[in-house]
Structure formats: C-alpha cells, structure tokens
Amino acid sequence: MDQERSVKDQLPYPYNQDLSAVLRRMNRRTPFSRQRLANDPVTASYVLAGMQLIRRHLGPGAQRVLNDPEDDNSLGRPLFSFLSQRAVVAELANNPPPFTRMGTTATLRCSWRSHSDYIADLLNFGLWSLHEPALYDSRIAPDTERLVEGPEFVEAAHRLCYYDLTTIVDGPTFRLELIATAAAEGDEVIQEALAANHQGAMEPWKQVYQEMFLARGLQLRPGVSLDDFAGTLAALASGFALRRISNPALVSIDTTEQRCIFGTAALALLLGCVEGVAGSDATGVSVEDAVHDLVYGRSPQDSQQTARPDRPCTTAGAQQDASGEGLPALPLSGEHALIAELDRLCDERQPPEVREAAVALRERLCAHMPD
Predict the structure, then answer these.
(1) Nearest-CA neighbor of 190 among 61, 55, 51, 76?
(2) How far is Cα 131 from Cα 119, in angstroms, rounded to an integer?
(3) Which of 22, 152, 251, 337 has the lowest CB atom count within 10 Å?
(4) What is each CA distance from 207 to 168, 276, 367, in whole angstroms?
C-alpha cells in the first residue's frame, strides 16, 4: 500500500488526488475496496489513456488522419463511425416509400468518391438552416409580425422562444451540430457546414430585428451590433437546449402556456441591449452604464452632471412613496416646500436640462440650511 501511495503521489495533478468521489462505479463490492481501486495508479493510467483519446479526436489540437494520403479532403471522422457504408446501406430498408429501400455499398461508392465526401455532404444537408424554424413556418410567421407591430409584443416573444427551444430539443439537427462542433477543429468541411448553417439560420431573424427596431422606435446600445444581438440570442437558445437535453429538470417548458425560461432570458437581453431612439434620458448609454444605473441608481455619465448629495437634503416632514416622489406628511415651510419640489424635479425621468438646474439649485439651498 505504501508503495502504491508513493507511485500515486508522483502522478501529476489531478491524478494524484483522491479519485474515489469521482470514479464511483469501480467493480468492487465494499466501499473500502472501491476507494482503493479508484486510487490505484493503474486505474489512473487507464483514465489518462481515455482522456488522451478524447483530446486526440475532439481537441483542442485534435489529430486529423487522411483516409487517402493523396486526397486532402479525405479526413477520417471517427465520431461519425455509426454512419459507416454498411450501416447506411442497411438503413435503406427502413426508408418510407417512395424512397429506395434497397442498395449496395458499390452504389454508394459510385455516388461519392469517398465515404468522407458522403459524410461531408450529409453534414451539409443535416445542418442546412431550413431544418430550423424559419419565418415561413406557419407557427412563427404570425408572431414575428406581432414583434413589429401591435400590443402583444411580450406574448409573441415568449411564444417564439418556446417554438424555437422545443424545435431544437425535439429534432436531430442540434444533436448533429453538437457532434460536428466537437469534431470541427482542423476540419474545414465541418467548419464550413457549421458556418453556413449559422448564417442561414440567423439572417432571417436579423431582418426581423431590424424591422422591429425601426417600427418600435428602438436601437441597439453603443457597442452592440446586430450580429452581436442575434448571436447572443442564438447562444442562449443553444445553451438552454443543451441543458434541457442533458437533464430535462434543469429547463422546464410549459406546453400549456407555451413559455420557457428562454423567453424570459431573451426579454432580459432585449432590455439590456436596446434603448429608445429619442425622447429617453437613457439614449446613448452603453450596456455597462445601464447596468451601473440599475445597480447604483445612476450611470457614471449622469453622476458627473446630475449627482445628488451623498446625504439627501430631506426634511422631517417628508416621506418617500414607492415611485420615489416626496409626499408631505406635515405642513412644510417655504424653504422645505421648495426642497420637496426640487426633489421631484431631480428625478431621472425629468429632462436632463431640468434635472441639472434642479440639482444645482437644490445643492445651494441645502448648503445654507441647518442640519
């Protein structure tokens, strides 16, 4: 045991750590025996070998082997081994009519120069953006119009996110995309297929967002592009889909109300990245400043121009309601009444020039008033 421990201690991190809480299915009856086997240097060696294979085939730095040394496009794709030529030919028998239900590997080889070419074309087809929900979909078209006009913006956004997430989770395309993404490093064919899929899926939605912003009098905040906004929404959808597939309990989907957390996240993203074109004090404020304003009550830019005193100059006879406006509880003197009115004018919902003048006058009055 001491000799085993000595070898174990010489292993690199984290293989030199206690692995009994990680390797929990060791083939031993007693907890003591399972713990000992989990920490055996031989066990660690098998674990390392498996991790090396994962890195070799999935990356980073995945090794790519040519099936035909004279053909640069004949990369082997071990993750798609279930799509061997024999497996594809056998699967023909399950095709519905009017598709062909009989074939041979010879016929398959006649249609594609190599099996690698067949896999490449299959990926291009499987990742084709038309497999994703698009604007022509009868479910989606009405709600995309509601994003542009009408009073049901929030409800339409929730339904669209529900449709998108359920379509991703219930279809094979996203799962194929996950495998393709894992094998994409160093494989230009897969990278091009993924890029074409992303672009084809994003472009129609970018057009909708542009029309929505124009019709609703909205614009993206400084530093956020249309590609950023659309890409972040797509990343949210993929993230929630991945969590839903791995464990449905992590992402609940309400099929009755047609809602899910993706809808709430999309609205939150819209709230943070979009602002009014005109008539809003927040126009021109970046996402970072908007968050600062949310947390601290004012943005760094506003604080330089309209900063209020650290200690509010309020009177004993004034109280604050939920909206922040002063409500006199007792009769106020002339000076106190003026302060209360200035408090109202200092509210950030007032025009900037009104706030600026009110803050300056309020500070001068407070400086001459007794504590």
Answers:
(1) 76
(2) 18
(3) 22
(4) 21, 19, 55
How open is the CA angle 130-224-355, to the nearest 5 degrees? Answer: 140
Question: String of b and e for 189-208 (b: at least 16 CB within 10 Å)?
Answer: bbeebbeebbebbbebbeeb
Q: First-to-last CA distance in the chain?
A: 76
HEC secondary structure over 234-256: HHHHHHHHHHHHHCHHHCCEECC
Phi-psi region of 243 (alpha: psi -120 to 50; beta: other; left: phi over 0): alpha
Quick: pLDDT tens for 172-208. 788 888 888 887 877 787 888 888 888 888 898 999 9
How long a stretch of residues is the chain?
371
Residue 317 pLDDT exceeds 80: no
Cross-strand partners of 318: 328
Averaging pLDDT over each range in 106-120, 184-198, 207-221, which range is the top one?
Answer: 207-221
Tokens of 161: 């996110």
Q: At CB < 8 A and 24+ separation, what contacts does 198-207 make?
A: 198/234, 199/129, 200/128, 200/129, 200/130, 201/129, 201/132, 201/134, 201/234, 202/227, 202/230, 202/231, 202/234, 204/134, 204/135, 205/230, 205/233, 206/230
Give the pair of three-digit tokens for residue 71: 């053909």
User: Does residue 251 contact residue 261 with C-beta atoms inside 8 Å?
Assistant: yes
pLDDT score recorded for residue 76: 61
178 within 8 A of 245, measured Cβ to Cβ: no
**218: enclosing H helix or E strand:** strand 218-220
Rounded CA-CA distance 312/345 in Å is 14
Q: Assign residue 150 a region: left if phi > 0, alpha if psi is -120 to 50, beta otherwise?
A: left
3-state secondary structure of 75: strand
Measured CA to CA in angstroms, residue 201 lies from 59, 125, 157 at distances of 26, 14, 17
Q: Which DSSP state fits 307?
A: P
Estimate to the nearest angstrom the gap between the alpha carbon of 20 and the chain centroid: 34
